[in-house]
Amino acid sequence: MKLVNQYSIPFTGLKEGEHEFIFYFGEKFFNKYEVLEAREGKLKALVFLVKKPNMLRLDIQLRGTLDLQCDRCLETFSYPIAYSGSLIVKFGLNIEESTDEIWVVNPNEHELDLEQYFFECIGLSLPIQKIHPDDLSGNSGCDTEMLKILNAYKISSTGEKTENDPRWDKLKDLLNNT
What we know:
With about 180 residues, the protein is an alpha+beta fold. It folds into 2 domains: about 10-125, no CATH class; about 145-175, no CATH class. The chain is built from 4 helices and 7 strands. The chain has a 5-stranded mixed sheet with strand order 2-3-4-5-6. A two-stranded antiparallel sheet has the order 1-7. The longest helix has 12 residues, at about 165-175. The chain is elongated, with a radius of gyration of 24 Å. The N and C termini lie far apart (about 75 Å).
């Protein structure tokens, strides 16, 4: 008996034309994919599927927020996710021809499993460096106590406390003079 995947679309019973599907992502999804580094989150995927006799076209939109850990102060913050993409599904026996945007599916298949696709889209929507956004005044959203501690222990690559390098000051003078 095959377990039903909540991120699958059974397309064989669908009539030709447009169809809409909604998928929700929560704690269970983020626990399964811990590599996303999301503590929690609430995301919604809207999938607009157009079924044609020889292919499927999917327009996918992901919206919501993820709770990420700040790389600077280690506090959790809410990060908005907004992703839009398209996927073409063709039917054929040569599955090796599949790419990121075009899937080739065996004509005997009855459903599309989108879970891995959703995982990749969410992962690509995350920033490389996860840092609290600045507030409206332009101040860092990080924990102020942690920033004080980090600044107190800030050292240069040579192991000394950071000070202005006079060579850079000379270059800055050149820029200021122009």
